[in-house]
Amino acid sequence: MKKHTAVLLAALAVFVAAAAGTVSAADNVSDGSTICNVTITGYECDSWSDEQYPIIDLCGEEYVPLFTTNGNICAVHVNKLARLMLDSNETHTLGQGEKIYLGEGYALEVKKISIDYMDVWLELTRDGQYVADQSISIETDNNMTWNVILDNVQGENDIVVMKVYVSNIFVGAENCIVRIDGIWLINYANARTLNVGDEFGEFTLKEIINGTGAPNLGSLVFENNMEPALTCNVTAAGYECDSWSDEQYPVINLFGAEYVPLFPTDGNIWDSHVNKLTGLILDSNETQVLEAGEILDLGQGYALEVREIDIDSEKAWLELTRDGQYIADKNVSMDTDDNRTWTVALDDVQGENNIVVMKVHVKNLFVGSEKRIVWIDGIWLADYANARTLNVGDEFGEFTLNQIINGTDASNLGSLVFGSASVTDETSVTDDTSTAGFSSSPSSENESDKFTNTSTEPPTSWYWNFWKSFTMKLK
């Protein structure tokens, strides 16, 4: 004998953990609702080949809407569901007193076999308690099926909960046996009534549609409470400086603000580190004319100083600092256009090396009657010191980072996929920016002769737009 097991109908709630797209016999409509339709299916037992019963598939689990013996298949109780435990044409041969254990506490016992009357007395029990019994005659095919009908199943009467087909009775030298060729059983004891507004995880029952006739047997309409996934794609942007017109850098728009994924000097644009982001402080083609010793304040504590101008060798010695501390320097030569660009690449930026953090283009050097000046017509600067690494599971208010997709080629530069957060942490970036790895204070002003910042927002705005407005779950 085969022992069958089943899961309680309470497991119905499990269906919400899967994507709506995996629900069989369901339609996804434009408003995000998922419609699970009642369909009809045939019994496995050949003797019931001209009969059908209703079924509804919720995420791969089959449930049976309660139906009666005195109505057609369209008159089902769409929102009153029982899990289908058995629909079997397996053959069972049993002697008198033997039982078939059907799972979930249900059992079918052969109470008595009467050869004289050609009938068999069967009894259904659950957890050892009597449920129903029937003497089944095998004189005609119609009499060989026992339909177990119960009242008060989720408030409904005449509900079909089990079918048993007895194909024959045999007499042996010592024993009589009965042959059963079909069993159909629902877990009626754990049936459940669904009501509009019931919530199952991220789904809410929005509408119950009763059947009107074949092929419309009724439906359950579920609404997804969670916002759909939000995919933020990395794109390519051109530099403002005309001398870099044939170059691009990666950007990603997160909720209306642009950030730069860290990218190396020696790779393709799709080799950027999609989840390691920094704010863009400057992308400017504004002309700056500076003398030796002058400092250009770039904002956020960054500054560019002209250390020396050498007319004889046609070079300008430039130095980048942050909060007055040395970062990098370069003698920029005027001999070729390529050499006129100083690309500042740093190591150990969020654990990555050779990261482009700044580009400066020196247009020319001039000698006046008293002064020497350098003409700068392009500056690009990322706030690498406040870069941030995002990890899957990080929560930002309503959103959770679900997936990091690295770039593969020019058509796919990578993406960040956000879903709705189920839990909101109480630690806000605005309450404790130090825990987020940021400083909320604007940098102190340097004593500079020249002052420019092409950003239209305060120095800290690059991360305020994103980080300030979100609550984070810190890893």
Automatic annotation (TrEMBL):
Top-level taxon of the source organism: Archaea
InterPro entries linked to this entry: S_layer-rel_Mac
Organism of origin: Methanosarcina acetivorans
Ranges where the S-layer family duplication domain occurs: 41-209, 235-405
Residue span of region Disordered: 427-455
Composition skew (Low complexity), residue ranges: 427-445
Pfam family, one: S-layer
Protein name per Swiss-Prot or TrEMBL: S-layer family duplication domain-containing protein
